[in-house]
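If you are new to this repository, start here. Below is one unmodified record pulled from the training split, so you can see the exact layout before writing a loader.
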Amino acid sequence: MTLQDLTIDNFKVINNKVFINPRIMNGNPGIILVHAHWCGHCKRFMPTYQGIAAQLNQSGDSFACLAIESEELKKDNGAVSNALNIEGFPTMFWVAQDGKVLGQYKGDRDPNTILSNVCDVYHHCIQYHS
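And here is the target side for that same chain:
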């Protein structure tokens, strides 16, 4: 699996918790990037995120690397973005195998830090860490 763009129809909000359709997750954990087409930080970060998606799936693994554009989030009158408490762009979130959004990624946006966090959170390691 490489980077997959989502639509608002792929989300559900239940008791202020956000879920992604479990069929998209296909039993695998993942991360989701919320970005805006007008955001300079997002434009600069997107190639990094695409590279991370490629690295996480280089050996045929199925780590879900997802993305949704902020304009798409407006199509549900803000239900998903409000439940996620999005304050800026780009923002990344951890997603469980069942599609439940677990929380926001708070680290640096460089590939090594993100990949190290993926290893720490999911034990999905593509490199050795000391």
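Two things worth knowing about this chain: The chain is about 35% helix and 25% strand. The chain has a mean pLDDT of 90.
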